[in-house]
Specification:
Order of helices and strands of chain B: HHEEEHEEHEHHHEHEHEEH
Mean pLDDT of chain B: 88
CATH superfamily of chain B: P-loop containing nucleotide triphosphate hydrolases
Radius of gyration of chain A: 32 Å
Order of helices and strands of chain A: HHEHEHEEHEHEHEEEEEHEEHEHHHHH
Strand content of chain A: 15-25%
Mean pLDDT of chain A: 86
Strand order of the largest sheet of chain A: 3-4-11-6-8-7
Number of domains of chain A: 2
Shape of chain A: elongated
Number of strands of chain A: 14
Structural class of chain A: alpha+beta
Largest sheet of chain A: 6 strands, mixed, barrel
Largest sheet of chain B: 6 strands, mixed
Structural class of chain B: alpha/beta
Number of domains of chain B: 1
Distance between the termini of chain B: 32 Å
Oligomer: heterodimer
CATH topology of chain B: Rossmann fold
Low-confidence stretches of chain B: 1-15
Number of helices of chain A: 14
Strand order of the largest sheet of chain B: 6-7-8-3-9-10
């Protein structure tokens, strides 16, 4: 018997027993649905992390010199070591900047939550950053209104700020903020620019910031004593990255007076190293996301096996007839295997569709991004087929082993 | 002489109707019969183990059937006729003895080989029709061709021809439950014939039919036999058996008599 005949036969049976088939499918459908949804969300977060999050946080061909990693799952003891590390200072940054090859850009940044107020709104604690160097170029930040802080203003420590869109609407509702005064930590600054919309990550707005020159009074509030949160270095291409990092490392090791045997007491994060942390979580999420659907799939397989066993005993006579007129062991085996597999593939296909809908719904209703990976659809269908085969083998072989004489006598 | 032959008890009655049949059956074991013989059974024995107790359903049956014969196998219940039908139909294999079907030694075959033989050599007609309830008449008739590996288009053509030949051209797409008993049995006959089998093997073919329909079906068998189809019919009704040209009577797992129809008729009436 041809496979095509077996498949046609399976569809015939399914058509006749719609309700029973539907219940048979539910387990597999639910399993595959959650498999697709979980994988989609994890994939979505993954591509989000790679393309958006880390790029926004650190940027391509860029590394960040910090006291310790910005994202990590450090242990207690690691933390204790990190907080003992010396902080990065303006003087460190100056020396590092001097050692950079031509074409490299750098910036320093210190941020903290500071009370901000204007004549048009009540004060509020929001993030303010004191920056220097090529900050705006490294962040690729442009203005929607006004202008950016000029190098002269950075050097002079002028009391000017560039603000995010949300700050603009909050503190200057329905007003043009350019040229108006914003009080940051008690000092008045002139708003010279409103940055273009930055979007959000995981539902957290990136448009809530105030940027002032590092030499302005803000610096003393966010990070006193010539300290900085971190320094960014951006290379024009990937090629110089390694050498430049080495150069910076040597400068920093010399400034921290490290002996050759001592490890670095600072980090140079790239987008890749920040991603490593994500990869670690992603692995765990995928495992958790696979175990739960797997349980549903096992239940689904048991349901299918049970239904197929019932089908075999209900259709004993049919099997007897088929054997009497020449069906071989493998014909009957194939018939029931294909039937079980067709059932579970249909279940899986419905699961894939529902899984896509579910992940789109999650993406729409929550900050979690979701992108359905083509491989997860294929995997879902294959898993469905696998469940069908596994669940079908035992009932099918029972059917195929039936003695035609006994089977023909069955009612 | 094989011991099975001397065991035939029916006092004075020869177990086999002609000397030629006697000769082919008593030929040495393992000797393939000639082309004329569609069925040769030598000392066919079938025992069942019923929870430790051995039940001997057949105790050395010798039968030889020529091509184109129309034979009825008769006997009361418990005579072993169902067991013999299962053996002739290749649904079962004997505990001892030889069974040659169309020159092939079937008694040594495994399940899959038997399935192939059933598909190609035997057309079954059952008392309860045994049609697939959810399939159309046409699909039921196609089924042996499906298992015979006949490609779809030819399958359909041959199935339609078979249905035409039993006069059901206008019922092809009906399901069994939309057909009368006689029509169902005709579908079953079409299915049995579609693979051009060596033997048409009917098991109480009129058992579930009223007398008018029975006559119709017996008429179909007669026409088939006349057209050269070998027909073997298992029945417990003497009236039905009397339609055949030759009647084999079983009793207690052995051949009690094997006669031409005329002799059989004379004996049962006398």
């Amino acid at each position: 018997m041809h496979l095509l005949d077996a498949i046609r036969l399976a569809f015939q049976t399914l058509r006749v027993q719609k309700l029973k088939s539907f219940f048979t499918l539910v387990g597999v459908t639910i399993g595959v649905m959650f498999l697709i949804a979980v994988v989609s969300i994890v994939e979505g977060m993954g591509s989000y992390m790679e393309n958006d999050f880390v790029a926004k946080l650190i940027g391509t061909n860029t590394f960040q010199l910090r006291r310790f990693p910005s994202i990590s799952d450090a242990s207690e003891s690691e933390w204790r070591e990190w907080v003992r590390r010396p902080r990065i200072t303006f003087d460190d940054a100056k020396e590092v900047a001097a050692a950079l090859p031509p074409g490299a850009m750098w910036s320093v940044e210190s941020s903290d939550n500071i009370a901000i107020e204007s004549r048009f709104s009540r004060p509020r604690e929001l993030e303010a950053s004191a920056v220097d160097g090529d900050y705006f170029r490294i962040r690729n930040m442009e203005v929607a209104q006004g202008r950016l802080i000029s190098p002269q203003e950075l050097a002079l420590g002028s009391r000017v700020v560039v603000i995010g869109q949300e700050i603009a609407t909050r503190f200057f509702p329905r007003l043009n903020p350019i040229g108006r005064t914003l009080k940051v930590g008690g000092t008045s600054y002139e708003v010279i620019g409103v940055a273009a919309k930055q979007g959000s990550i995981f539902g957290i707005s990136l448009d809530r910031f105030v940027i002032a020159p590092a030499s302005s009074p803000l610096q003393r509030i966010v990070n006193p004593h010539g300290l900085i949160d971190g320094m960014k270095v951006k290379m024009p291409t990937t090629e110089g990255m390694f050498d430049t990092r080495e150069t910076v490392r040597q400068v920093m090791r010399a400034r921290h007076k490290l002996r050759p045997s001592q490890p670095d007491n600072f980090v140079m994060e790239t987008s890749e190293s920040a991603l490593e942390f994500w990869k670690k979580i992603e692995g765990n999420l995928v495992i958790a996301g696979v175990i739960l659907p797997a349980i549903a799939l096992i239940v689904g397989a048991l349901v299918i096996m049970n239904i197929m066993l019932v089908a075999v005993s209900e259709r004993t006579r049919e099997i007897g007839i088929r054997k009497a007129i020449g069906a071989k062991y493998r014909d009957i085996l194939a018939q029931f295997l294909v039937e079980a597999t067709t059932l579970s593939i249909i279940g899986a296909a419905i699961g894939v569709a529902l899984g896509i809908i579910l992940s789109q719904a999650i993406a729409a209703l929550s900050p979690l991004p979701a992108s359905v990976a083509p491989w997860s659809i294929i995997t879902g269908i294959l898993v469905g087929a696998g469940v069908g085969v596994v669940a079908g083998v035992y009932p099918a072989s029972r059917a195929a082993r039936l003695d035609p004489i006994v089977a023909l006598r069955a009612e | 002489m094989m011991p099975g032959i001397t065991d035939v008890p029916s006092a004075g009655e020869p177990g086999l109707s002609t000397t030629a049949e006697r000769k082919i059956v008593t030929a040495s074991a393992g000797e393939a019969p000639g082309k004329d013989w569609v069925i040769v059974a030598r000392g066919l024995t079938r025992e069942y183990d019923m929870g430790g107790e051995i039940v001997r359903a057949l105790r050395g049956v010798d039968i030889a059937i020529r091509r184109n014969e129309y034979v009825a196998i008769m006997g009361p219940s418990g005579s072993g006729k169902s067991t013999l039908m299962n053996l002739i139909g290749c649904l079962d294999t004997p505990t001892a003895g030889e069974y040659w079907l169309n020159g092939m030694l079937v008694s040594d075959m495994n399940d899959d080989e038997l399935a192939r033989i059933r598909n190609r050599e035997i057309g079954f007609v059952f008392q309860t029709f045994n049609l697939l309830p959810r399939a159309s008449a046409l699909h039921n008739v196609e089924l042996p061709l499906v298992y015979g590996g006949v490609p779809g288009a030819e399958r359909r053509k041959r199935a339609e021809e078979a249905l035409d030949s039993v006069g059901l051209s206008d019922r092809k797409l009906h399901r069994p439950n939309e057909l009368s008993g006689g029509q169902r049995q005709r579908v079953a006959i079409a299915r049995a014939l579609v693979n051009r089998p060596s033997i048409l093997l009917a098991d109480e073919p009129t058992g579930n039919l009223d007398s008018t329909t029975s006559a119709e079906i017996m008429n179909v068998f007669e026409q088939l036999a006349e057209s050269g189809q070998t027909v073997i019919m298992v029945t417990h009704e003497a009236e039905i058996a009397a339609h055949a040209k030759r009647v084999v009577v079983l009793r207690d797992g052995m051949v009690e008599s094997d006669d031409r129809r005329e002799k059989f008729a004379a004996r049962i009436s006398g």
